[in-house]
Amino acid sequence: MTKPAKDTEKRERIVKRIARELRDGFYVNLGIGMPTLVANHVPPGIQVVLQSENGMLGIGPFPIEGEEDPDLINAGKETITEMPGTSYFSSADSFAMIRGGHIDLSVLGAMEVDEEGSIANWMIPGKMVKGMGGAMDLVASAKRVVVAMEHTTREGQPKILKKCTLPLTGSKVVDTIVTEMAYIRITPTGLVVEEIAPGLTFEDLQRATEATLIQSPSLKPMPS
Amino acid sequence: MFNHHGGTELRRTQSRQEQPDHLGTTRESHPLSRNCSLRVSVVSNVLESFPMNKVVASADEAIRDIPDGATIMIGGFGLCGIPENLIRALVRKGTKNLTTISNNVGVDGYGMGLLLAAGQISRHIGSYVGENRLLEQMVLEKKIDLELTPQGTFSERIRAGGAGIPAFFTPAGFGTMVAENKETREFGGHMYVMEHALKADFAFVKAWKGDKWGNLVYRKTARNFNPMMATAAKVTIAEVEHLVEVGEIDPDLVHTPSIYVKRIFQGELYERRIERRTVRKAS
Question: Which of A80, A98, A137 should be substituted to probe chain B, the one whose Cβ sees the most B Cβ atoms within 10 Å?
């Protein structure tokens, strides 16, 4: 089932904006789902290396049909390929790499993020608990944690809250939130909106957000 | 080289010249002194004899002595790098009331999903179990006890178990449900949660190649949890796609040194199923 065009547009804007955060020489972990799309927009002229928590540095593109290797999968269990410079290591080494603060940028999705930068993205009470996987390690340890998510739920409810209501993945760990509406930095004084989607007013943005937003003095439009 | 025999025995490493240490003792003079450099090893009368000929004929042979109620670590991430033959053998054997330690629990109908369906698992410790509807049902019906732990913590608990580290502090899970009822401590201005080592009676490890001493080499992302699990069980059983003679593996390229492996065999059949076949169009 394909997502409606509007949703695809939203995701494109989010992942393209996050890709602008990449710098030459960055080692990056992209979470399952929308964050993996950031890899499609690496700015020309720079080299980034993607880390997969199941024990690989240097993730290549998906294989061509017929070339899938069952021993070569990403953290989402999808078949992938290598690239020149790839290396493999155990799960303990992978998480030592993560926990030791060697990953420059970690991008993940979320159900909720709050004013203090706490994030909930692994469990909905009442529904089956699937497990947290590597998310808790990633958010607790990466040099920079960026959340890629739509600004509101399908029902139009805010996802950026005063305080998370769902069980936390990490407490006060998020640095930046990027949605289709805004680019928001989490600071000690609160959520500062640095960029806003073209055509959107600050008031529109605040209406879609439960947490109190602070307008940056250098607020500018999100690049398209 | 020493042979095992029962009773208490002092083991001395070979050395040409016994020089007295800073207290004036030599290895020979103070066998039980805590300042002594002698290694005291107690070989109990309940022998665990692991001969150097580690090759067993088959998966069935390898698991012959696994009792009901055993704790077993099982390698693999999703379906990648799972010890398929050992799992199938365990299902055939019907050993029950098992505690399994594995990142995932296979999928419905394959891998550890088979053990689950056969009702052989009473307790499971892992980090992500989202692909099993049966497991969901069993948890709701209280037919299985499930412990979920962050994947990095899970990896490190196993590594610690094999490395003699009883407990450690990690930032993962601080401020979340994971930290409930656990000691937390501040180091350098950051908060950490104390986690304990994980060990098992048996470990089922899958490697690409192994020699008859049990030196193992893994392939690509099929490595994952196998190396740590190999170190953290009393009896590590390795199944390999290629079993070779001792000396055929370049020493610099050994991933798991032979010391950890007690039994090894070449797997009879490898399906190496793919969980999510994902492809791109040829341009």
Answer: A137
